[in-house]
């Protein structure tokens, strides 16, 4: 470490700690000169450590300016810690990073001690989400206008036909139009809300599940809620999660199904005694358009996954008893109410 260190700092003091951190570490002084960098930071910038030590911090940290460094240095209070998302660059290599910088004194001399993490993957994910949201916003506009208008026209003509008397065929048309309305609402929900939730609060699983059950056409299906526990969630979106799971169980059942909601050590489960899950990787069920059939929209479980992610939960799908019958959706990482 001595080859990457200059000044009065004893490298032995930092040896064990710095190598165990697993992230980039850099120390610079009141002159803005790097006095120490570890191997992880040099590797991040794909440059030798000795090429960094002794160089000014503003030659790497793009947010700092040489003629304003003194003001920046003087603005730090003793022991103060600051975080920032910025970029560090050497030559043609620029890396988006997250930094945590703390003012510390060693042998009465002040230094800024910083840890630096590569956030390239996070930046790429952020760009991906921005592009996705833009596409979804455009799609939501198309759905709201281009699909609702012809649907309203179809409803108007259906009412005219009903003036001459009802028939089984007209009821089938009405059912198909109602299904289209559900599909449009699901698409709009997925596009406009996605992974957003409102303020979380303790919510009774029993109350919210039964409330959701009352809004779904369940026919002869039955619901059992085997817990009176509370979870911390956005009540509106949790109810929507249950509605979509209940609708999925009823629509994919071969007859009247029994649905059960129960608590687990790390969350809750919603299970049914229907025909079970299709063959293959169950994760595809949460992709938009994948979980539907002739009677479903294929959007409901995608919304379930979005709501879970928005709360910081994970969701997995599996056969209820491991024997190919029944379906179970398990939510983990859930915070319980008091």
UniProtKB/TrEMBL annotation:
The entry's keywords: Kinase, Transferase, Two-component regulatory system
Keyword Protein transport: no
Catalytic activity: ATP + protein L-histidine = ADP + protein N-phospho-L-histidine
Signal peptide: none
Any one Gene Ontology molecular-function term assigned to this protein's record: phosphorelay sensor kinase activity
Domain spans labelled Histidine kinase: 142-335
Pfam families: HATPase_c, HisKA, PAS_4
Record domain PAS: where: 10-55
Stored InterPro entries: HATPase_C_sf, HATPase_dom, His_kinase_dom, HisK_dim/P_dom, HisK_dim/P_sf, PAS, PAS-like_dom_sf, PAS_4
Enzyme Commission number, as recorded: 2.7.13.3
The keyword Amino-acid biosynthesis is assigned to this record: no
Organism domain of life: Archaea
EC category: transferase
Protein name: histidine kinase
Organism of derivation: Halorientalis pallida
